[in-house]
Amino acid sequence: MRTINVIRHGGPNVLTLTECEPEPVPAGHVRLRVAAAGINFADVHQRTGAYPRQLPFVPGSEGAGHIIEIGPDVTGVELGQRMAWQGVAGSYAEQVVAPAWQLIQVPDGVSDEQAAALPVQGLTAHYLATSSYMIRRGDHVVVHAGAGGVGLLLTQIAKLRGAIVFTTVSTPEKARLSLAAGADEVATYADFDDVVQRATNGLGAAAVYDGVGQATFEKSLRVLAARGTLVLFGQSSGPVPHFDLARLGQSGSLTITRPTLRDFVATRTELRRRAAELWEWVSHGELVIRVGRTFGLAAAAQAHNELQARRTTGKLLLLP
User: Fold this and answer.
1) Cα 64–chain centre separation
2) Is 203 in a helix, a strand, or coil?
3) Is the pLDDT assigned to residue 82 strictly greater than 90?
4) Which tens digit of pLDDT belongs to each residue from 208-223?
5) What domains lie within the chain, and their CATH numbers?
């Protein structure tokens, strides 16, 4: 089968198309033919070495496809069944071996591309809005990178929960996409603090969802209301600087949390509950999945270039 390999850390050019023999399927696992694999910023960080992984490795952790082999001690699944997944290493490939408990059954009417676009960013948006900070009706919240994959989904979920949503974007085209997703007001990264303070009469936001990191961290803190929460879930612009926790008390008893998806889908029960709610919203047309661009497996380096240059909106996919 064909895979993308990383044998050394570096730029997108280290993503190399190779051929290898498929690995055996151990107990509790299944083999799936990959129809589409999701591309996430975590893949970029692993490629560069910012998120350490032992070399060599096949990047990617998300996708959708169908089961072609079932290992020992697996029940409740069938050959040919369509599944999506997240947290499965090596998804930039034609085939992947996954723990059966981590699979999410894809409902009828959902395409392979939609299914591959939802697990990481959809589940992330779900736990951000319902667990990291539980959005309540009437809350003012800020969503950074509002036209990105997580940003578009998180904006929609925040609106479903009754929030007033401010987003940040970098271009007029991204502003239009963010407004179409339901944002009440869209701002640039340079002026979002002024926009939020004006709209809230100086009170500030109940929560800021920040996947950008270094470039937005200080303003994100300053725009929070007293007892507000900064949910720092990524660092696309780089890691935030060291921080004196005493500032939280001095600034209005603020809270900062640094969540990761794996801790919010740690059990089969929680994973299925979150996924079921996402599929329900999708089936009712309340949550729209935007696939920005698709690439062949051999074009993985081009896809990473586009993502890092912030020339993308919605979800990027590889189609093996």
Assistant:
1) 15
2) coil
3) yes
4) 999 998 899 999 999 9
5) 2-118+290-319 (3.90.180.10), 121-262 (3.40.50.720)
